């Protein structure tokens, strides 16, 4: 895009990790793709202070709660709060896919850090424990339960859809026409119910 003169008004930061020999670990309903590096280390490398909003893209097929092939987005997660799904992101998803938008449920457990012995759908929302910026999960999904450690399970068309969605979000976000959350409503909910940042921590060690 840049070589053809199509430059965005803001910066887009892309971070990822690659492991050619990733281990697996037990998880219901199918085994997880694991990492030899702990989530805290990955967050320290992948999350930078300049990020004002984050799309966390992750294959999310080893479950029975998203029964759709393509992509799905999560509600916005910010500072321990699970907020409403962004209307702007739903609109952009409709345009990028040509289909009705698809979302997936998020639980309190999913937005807590790994290592607390609670069930997590996967690591898609782990960036939310390491930043105050709003985080939205972009799940690459399947209609059936597919193990993340399975070969041949990633389809190019679904990956391309996730990329196209992310690019369109980046265009609108840097143009000021896309909001991940309602700032006034977030201020209201924190005024009424206080901080939920404890959910970004390991919590109490008392058993």
Q: How is this structure best summarized?
A:
The protein has 207 residues and is of the alpha+beta class. Helix content is 24%, strand content 12%.
Radius of gyration: 17 Å
Report strand order across the widest sheet: 3-7-4
Fraction of residues in helices?
A: 10-25%
Mean pLDDT: 93
- Multimerization status: single chain
Could you give the count of β-strands?
Answer: 7
Order of helices and strands: EEHEEEEHEHH
- Main β-sheet description: 3 strands, mixed
Alpha-beta content class: alpha+beta
- What portion of the residues fall into strands of 2 or more residues? 5-15%
Distance from first to last alpha carbon: 53 Å
Note the overall shape: globular
Describe the structure.
With 207 residues, the chain is of the alpha+beta class. 24% of the residues lie in helices and 12% in strands. It has a 3-stranded mixed sheet, with helices on one face. A hairpin with a 2-residue loop joins strand 5 (77-78) and strand 6 (81-82). Helix 2 (87-97) crosses helix 3. The chain is globular. The model has no long low-confidence stretch (mean pLDDT 93).
